[in-house]
TrEMBL record, chain A:
Keyword Cell membrane: yes
Tagged with keyword tRNA-binding: no
Protein name in UniProt: ABC transporter ATP-binding protein
Lipid bilayer topology: Peripheral membrane protein
Provenance organism: Salipiger pallidus
GO cellular component: plasma membrane
Family: Belongs to the ABC transporter superfamily.
UniProtKB/TrEMBL annotation, chain B:
Main location: membrane
Pfam name, any one: BPD_transp_1_N
Domain ABC transmembrane type-1: 94-303
Transmembrane segments: 12-31, 100-122, 134-160, 180-200, 238-259, 285-310
Membrane topology term: Multi-pass membrane protein
GO biological process, one term: transmembrane transport
Record InterPro entries: BPD_transp_1_N, MetI-like, MetI-like_sf
Record's keyword annotation contains Transmembrane helix: yes
Record's GO cellular component terms: plasma membrane
This protein's name: Peptide ABC transporter permease
Compartments where located: Cell membrane
Swiss-Prot/TrEMBL keywords: Cell membrane, Membrane, Transmembrane, Transmembrane helix, Transport
């Protein structure tokens, strides 16, 4: 089976001070139909830019410099703006991080939903409205008919994120890119929305790229995981495999820094140092400045070691499982 | 809404009251109207009679009280110069000023808004940079100089357009006749230049602020046509500050177009008020300024109503 999405050596750059800084640096991954990929990394690791690159929505002057984004066989990196527009919202949808900012404050919810339908289909107003209403009901918004006429400020954050999810699901897309959609929400609302989102995408057979820094969310949600650091994917594989036996020191550090019940009272492990900025990314392995296992070999760029579906980029991988 | 209206009305009354006081005292300090209005050759008895006619023989506080008494009956007093009710003298000039202000505002919006939108959406293009440079000129060149240059170029050198007066009028309006319209063009352009630059720069700044917001990116992520993203999602959000400026600038066009009206011999209210100040025609000055207070209060109210139409989060309920 060919993958729904096959990203190969994607490079997205932002020009700065006369040179191109690589926010996304030769990233390769694939997503099958109906599959959930967790894209994990710290702030500034390039995970959001990766998401926007897939949508063709990288903010100027940033641009995709090279690589392929094969979506159902077509290379999106070379698609025309109009082709991308027609794809966005219809076959690839996106849910953003901050629900307070994603809906236009001066337009009614109904308008913001039906305009999405009108952008891709020739349908009448009553039909568009009916579909928008059903979509609201689907994400658990009470009295959807009246809520269509409400404005975003009349909704809570959780409700707004439900509206955003309803908009993303309107056209039954093949792929949804969820860019930390629950980070800005209360924990209780978070789990509700995650489970509803999961149920809806499973029912529609939608593939999901769930971008997050929260390993706990990904562990319950994703089929596979890709860990990003410094614009590169440092480790990827089936979720259980990567979480129980992470090979890359960075993945290991990330997992160790999640508080868990059996480490109560113990000092939380942390990764020393901070994520280097794009302008000061070390040559070779980007993580070597913070890595305890780094040596002279790490000044070379590590290749991908392992199998096609499960690999890491490290010269000194951990072989043992996490205890 | 109603409480809001009443509250503004009361505020306006206070401002009007304060202003009549200032004008009465101010005109009195500047000079004695009698010295300007009365023929110096008249003898003392005739002089006294004229003063009694105008009520200028009374002490200032008594003049003020009788003015207030007249005001209660809707009488603003007679102009010292024209010998007719001051309000009537002003209202005669209103259409001329109104059509000039309106024409200038329409030009400013029709030109400034699209250019500002363009310059905001494509800030790196050469054309945008030219537009922004042009707007700095429009901003900083003095109105009187531009007016004179217009006359020099279009009226004197090229002879395309008339430079003085309103031309033929239909009723009180000159834009209804071809000749009147030709007379309107130069003064309207002259007035519009500054306002165009203002609206243009404000729109551009608004675009750049709104375009960076998540909801614009989300609108694009929904696959909307770029046209809709710009004309609905961006434009509606940036109109709030622009509407404020349009409203206030329209008020200032009506009230303070003195320079342009003088240069182009446009018989509007601005010219009238300057003449009245020169002649210390107090009733006209007072009535004019009172009208302007009412005008600005009304405009502010209209602007607030526009807010509620543009932004659902704004509500006009007596509070706030």
């Amino acid at each position: 089976m060919t993958a729904l999405l096959d990203v190969r050596d994607l490079v997205t750059v932002f020009p700065s001070g006369g040179r191109d800084l690589r926010a996304v640096d030769e990233v390769s991954f694939s997503v099958n139909r109906g599959e959930v990929l967790g894209l994990v990394g710290e702030s500034g690791s390039g995970k959001s830019v990766t998401g926007f690159s897939l949508m063709g929505l990288v903010d100027a002057p940033g641009r995709i410099a090279s690589g392929q984004i094969l979506f159902d066989g077509d290379d999106l990196a070379k698609a025309s703006p109009e082709a991308m527009r027609s794809l966005r919202g219809r076959r690839i949808a996106m849910v953003f991080q901050d629900p307070m900012m994603t809906l236009n404050p001066v337009l009614r919810i109904g308008t913001q939903m039906t305009e999405t339908l009108h952008a891709h289909e020739r349908i009448g107003k009553p039909e568009a409205r009916a579909r928008a209403r059903d979509a609201l009901a689907q994400v658990g918004i009470p009295s959807p008919e009246e809520r269509l006429d409400a404005y975003p400020h009349e909704f809570s954050g959780g409700m707004r994120q439900r509206v955003a999810i309803a908009i993303a699901l309107l056209h039954r897309p093949d792929l949804i890119i969820a860019d930390e959609p629950t980070t800005a929400l209360d924990v209780t609302i978070q789990s509700q929305i995650i489970s509803e989102f999961q149920a809806l995408t499973e029912r529609q057979g939608t593939a999901v790229i769930w971008i997050t820094h929260d390993l706990a969310i990904v562990s319950g949600l994703a089929d596979r995981i890709a860990v990003m650091y410094g614009g590169r994917i440092v480790e990827t594989g089936p979720i259980a495999e990567v979480l129980t036996a992470p090979k890359h020191p960075y993945t290991r550090g990330l997992i160790r820094s999640v508080p868990s019940e059996n480490s109560r009272g113990a000092r939380l492990a942390q990764i020393p140092g901070v994520t280097p900025s794009l302008a000061h990314m070390p040559q070779g392995c980007a993580f070597r400045s913070r890595c305890q296992r780094a040596d002279a070999a790490c000044a070379q760029r590590p290749g991908a070691y392992g199998s096609d579906s499960c690999w890491h980029r490290c010269f000194h991988p951990h072989e043992e499982a996490l205890t | 809404m109603i409480t809001n209206l009443i509250r503004r009305g009361i505020q306006a009354l206070f401002v009007i009251f304060a202003m009549t006081l200032i004008v009465f005292v101010g005109v009195n300090v500047i000079g004695n109207p009698v010295d300007i209005l009365i023929n110096p050759d008249l003898n003392q008895a005739e002089r006294l009679r004229v003063m009694q006619n105008l009520g200028l023989d009374q002490p200032l506080w008594r003049q003020y009280l009788s003015f207030l008494a007249g005001l209660a009956e809707g009488d603003f007093g007679d102009s010292f110069v024209y010998g007719r009710p001051a309000l009537g003298v002003i209202l005669e000039r209103l259409p001329a000023t109104l059509e000039l202000a309106l024409a200038a505002m329409v030009i400013a919006i029709v030109v400034g808004l699209p250019l500002g939108l363009y310059a905001g959406l494509y800030p790196d293009r050469l054309s945008s940079k030219l537009i922004m440079t042009g707007s700095i000129l429009g901003f900083s060149l003095p109105t009187f100089w531009v007016g004179l240059m217009f006359i020099l170029l279009f009226a004197v050198q090229l002879g395309w357009l008339p430079s003085n007066g309103r031309g033929e009028t239909a009723g009180a309006w000159s834009f209804l006749t071809g000749d009147g319209l030709r007379h309107l063009i130069l003064p309207a352009l002259n007035l519009a230049l500054f306002k165009t630059s203002l609206i243009l720069r404000l729109t551009r700044a608004g675009v750049q602020e709104v375009i960076a917001q998540d909801f614009v990116k989300f609108a694009r992520a929904k696959g909307l046509l770029e046209r809709r993203v710009v004309l609905v999602h961006i434009l509606k959000n940036l109109m709030i500050p622009v509407v404020t400026i349009i409203g206030l600038e329209f008020g200032s066009l009506i009230a303070f177009s003195v320079v342009t009206e003088s240069i182009f011999g446009w018989p509007g209210m601005g010219k009238l008020i300057i003449d009245s100040i020169n002649l210390l025609d107090r009733p006209v000055i007072v009535a004019y300024l009172m009208m302007m207070v009412v005008l600005f209060v009304t405009l502010n109210f209209v602007i607030d109503i526009c807010y509620t139409l543009l932004d659902p989060r704004v509500r006009l309920d007596g509070k706030g």
